[in-house]
Design brief:
Layout: H1 2-8, E1 13-18, E2 28-33, E3 36-37, H2 40-52, H3 69-80, E4 87-92, H4 99-108, E5 111-116, H5 138-147, E6 151-155, E7 162-164
Parallel strand pairs: 4-5, 4-6
Antiparallel strand pairs: 1-2, 2-3, 6-7
Helix pairs in contact: 3-4
Length: 165
């Protein structure tokens, strides 16, 4: 959602606090400047500023939006379009944040979604939300076979990376 918001909204900087696919006690920042994610040297400069507490004074503005969710979903549907045929997909979000929204996006695209662990539970009772680890994809693989789905999608704590099977 962070990356898409930089396309849809007139922002100079976008920031998300996320553990991504790490354990929940390891939160970090995803930062975009304009439409591009920060990385490398620029990101290390920000880290150094925080560690040293060497902040510049300045001014700026911010706006609190009621909700970006519907605009986000519609933006994806508008850019991708509905599917040209029926498709069944199992979606495993590992009880992480993307669950309800990912289900909504896929359904609006015309996908028959079989949700697996798509409700929020930050204790991650089924498995960690990390599709890069094969052991976290086992339930997804079984559900694909059980429901006759064409494939399955596993998501991490903030919706990337994805694992497919």
């Amino acid at each position: 959602m962070l990356y898409r918001s930089t396309v849809d909204l007139p922002v100079d900087v976008a920031v998300a606090i996320t553990p991504s696919h790490n354990p929940p006690e390891y939160n970090g920042f995803k930062i975009c400047k304009g439409k591009m994610p920060l990385g490398g040297e620029e990101l290390q400069e920000i880290r150094k500023t925080f560690e040293e507490g060497n902040f510049r004074e300045g001014s700026g503005s911010y706006r609190i939006m009621d909700s970006y969710e519907e605009r986000y979903v519609q933006s994806i549907v508008d850019s991708v379009g509905r599917l040209s045929r029926d498709i069944r997909v199992v979606l495993d979000c590992g009880n992480a944040v993307p669950g309800p929204l990912a289900v909504k996006v896929l359904e609006r695209l015309g996908v028959d979604v079989i949700p697996l662990y798509c409700d929020w539970d930050n204790s991650f009772p089924n498995h960690p939300p990390d599709p890069t680890r094969q052991e976290n994809m086992k339930d997804l693989g079984r559900a694909v076979l059980e429901h006759g789905a064409e494939f399955g999608i596993g998501m991490d704590g903030d919706g990337d990376p994805l694992g497919c099977g």
